[in-house]
Write a structure and sequence with these properties.
This protein is mainly α. Helices cover about 80% and strands about 0% of the residues. Helix 1 packs across helix 3 and helix 1 runs antiparallel to helix 4.
């Protein structure tokens, strides 16, 4: 959901595209608003990726890679 906002706000910051599509900058406010939207969305996307990478590291890299490739996830020995 963040990627379209990143792309649209990035396009709105371009002076050349601003001349071609002035309505785009009008939707997002002014150029400074487009910069702020672009920065916030990019930081949120980077945070999303970092949190998910940390979750993979915390739960075991090799087991997660094996489950993505083969479909088998090792839950360990069960006592019971």
């Amino acid at each position: 959901m963040l990627c379209p906002f990143i792309v649209l706000s990035g396009l709105a910051m371009s002076p050349q595209l601003d001349a071609a599509w002035p309505w785009l900058l009008g939707i997002l406010g002014e150029r400074q608003s487009a910069r702020t939207i672009h920065f916030v969305c990019a930081c949120a996307l980077a945070s999303f990726v970092m949190v998910h990478l940390l979750m993979v590291l915390a739960s075991g890299v090799w087991n997660n890679l094996r489950s993505m490739i083969t479909g088998w996830y090792d839950i360990g020995e069960t006592n019971g």
